[in-house]
Amino acid sequence: MPGHRIFATTFARVYPMYVQKAERKQRTKDDVDRILCWLTGYDAAGLQQQIDASVDFETFFAQAPAMHPKRFEIKGVVCGVRVEAVEDPLMREIRHLDKLIDELAKGKPMEKILRS
Description:
This protein has about 120 residues and is mostly helical. The chain has seven helices and two strands; from the N terminus they run H-H-H-H-H-E-E-H-H. It has a single domain (about 5-110), classed as uncharacterized protein sp1917 domain (Helicase, Ruva Protein, domain 3, Orthogonal Bundle).
């Protein structure tokens, strides 16, 4: 069975949408990058390398240096789907990221977003 089409979508194609969503709510690209680095373990250079290489979401998460263990504390609904109920592991990681960006856009403090 083929995966969801988002799996083959390039991360570089969606990344600007994350940044735009944040900026519309007076947050910054740096905030988005901080969330991405926290979630995946990429540093700024590694994140930029993934964007420049136009890797797909599947590769982006597969090559992540260290997925944050506190990501399982991310709960709630994104796009009508309860994050913790998503069964496919890759889709769950994508939904974790979506939820973090939503929290950023809703003005939640960074310490709470990063589960500090």
